[in-house]
TrEMBL record:
The lineage of its organism: Bacteria, Bacillati, Actinomycetota, Actinomycetes, Micrococcales. Belongs to the VirD4/TraG family. It is a multi-pass membrane protein. It is found in: Cell membrane. The keyword Hydrolase does not apply. Keywords: Cell membrane, Membrane, Transmembrane, Transmembrane helix. The chain crosses the membrane at residues 18-39. It comes from Microbacterium ginsengisoli. InterPro entries: P-loop_NTPase, T4SS-coupling_protein, TraG/VirD4. This is Type VI secretion protein. It holds the Pfam family T4SS-DNA_transf. GO terms for cellular component: plasma membrane.
Length: 365
């Protein structure tokens, strides 16, 4: 092959070298241009794949949705989810989350949902608020801001059930705090006192990795709290008195006397509490640090008022749940007036009541 005579190699003596090389250059340019466009297309496709949630590897496809999150799959499980319903509707046994690949996505009432997203990404507007609005039964919603409250309050009021707001820190300006709930409520029953003490102790953060032997100190805090709550309930003491006991171990000797003399006091609780009060001062003070921390928010007069209902303001969890009520719980976990541990204890009270109702319901195991 000679560059100045390409025709001889191709068997065409009349082929012009100039025409040959011009044609070859144009073909190479066309191939190069096509390759460049293909490369750009593949790169853009990759970018779209990364940005499009439907194209991310591991995301449910249409077949997955049909099998595990469709209306048909939800209704198939309805007799297990709510045995008391004879002709269940999808919205009575689940929640509509949205659509995926053109198919409606449902989750059942027994499923827990973990919603992950950065601030202002629409978690509340797209999921939480819709779930509150669509709930056919009772709703308990917690938040550190009043967004969900202001968006759904009027709609839930028109739902027919009782609507209450527990806002001990007055985070929702212009909305009456309304409901008052005492952590002492029901604690004349030892099991209730134990559950309430567990919820309050968990809010101290003592079991966190930063506290040496944190599990031990949280356990001691829980034991002391359940005894104080039990004594306060048996003797009809107010939350202000309970708060005074948590501030000073010497003042808590009053609770020991109640537990030792009351005929309905739990066996051994007086001795257990007295043993803590009479222990080595360093041990006692360490225990009482957790006890005082659990109800530290009561130092705020507004919070103390919110947990001090009058006789005619007693909250009835069972009536609330059976009446398909709505309860908005607002609290923060930081700052001097943080009342998140009280909200956690309040929720424990409601959950335990719901368990008892469920155990008595038709179809319960």
């Amino acid at each position: 092959f000679h560059a100045d005579d390409p025709g001889s190699a191709l068997g065409s003596a009349s082929l012009s070298p100039v025409a040959y090389w011009i044609t070859a250059a144009l073909l190479l340019a066309a191939i190069g241009t096509a390759a460049w466009f293909i490369w750009r297309w593949v790169r853009e496709l990759g970018k779209r794949t990364k940005a499009d949630p439907n194209r991310i590897e591991g995301i449910a496809d249409a077949r997955d949705v049909q099998r595990a999150a469709s209306e048909r799959d939800l209704l198939r499980r309805a007799t297990t989810l709510r045995p008391s319903l004879t002709e269940p509707k999808p919205e009575e046994v689940g929640y509509l989350l949205g659509t995926s690949r053109g198919k409606r996505v449902w989750t059942s009432v027994e499923d827990s949902i973990l919603l992950i997203g950065p601030p202002r990404s629409g978690k509340g507007a797209n999921i939480v608020i819709n779930t509150i609005l669509d709930a056919p039964g009772a709703v308990i919603t917690t938040s550190t801001r009043p967004d969900n409250l202001t968006a759904t309050l009027r709609a839930r009021q028109s739902h027919g059930g009782p609507v209450s707001v527990f806002d001990p820190q007055h985070l929702a300006e212009g909305v009456p705090a309304g409901l008052r709930w005492s952590p002492i409520r029901g604690c004349e029953v030892p099991l209730t006192a134990m559950i309430r003490g567990t919820g309050l102790a968990a809010g101290t953060g003592l079991s966190g990795p930063s506290v040496e032997n944190g599990g031990f100190w949280e356990g001691k805090t829980r034991t002391a709290l359940q005894a104080l709550l039990h004594a306060a309930a048996l003797d009809h003491r107010q939350p202000a008195e309970l708060f005074r006991w948590t501030l000073d171990p010497a003042a808590a000797a009053d609770a020991v006397s109640i537990l030792a003399s009351h005929p309905h006091a739990a066996t051994g609780w007086a001795e257990s509490l007295d043993g803590m009060l009479q222990s080595d001062p360093r041990t006692r003070d360490s225990i009482w640090q957790g006890v005082s921390l659990s109800l530290a928010s009561l130092a705020d007069p507004r919070v103390l008022e919110a947990v001090s209902p009058s006789e005619d303001e007693q909250f009835d969890p069972e009536a609330f749940l059976r009446g398909s009520g709505t309860l908005y719980l607002l609290a923060t976990g930081a700052g001097a007036g943080a009342s998140s541990s009280l909200v956690a204890a309040f929720i424990e009270d409601l959950v335990e009541t719901a368990r008892r109702i469920a155990a008595r319901s038709p179809g319960a195991p």
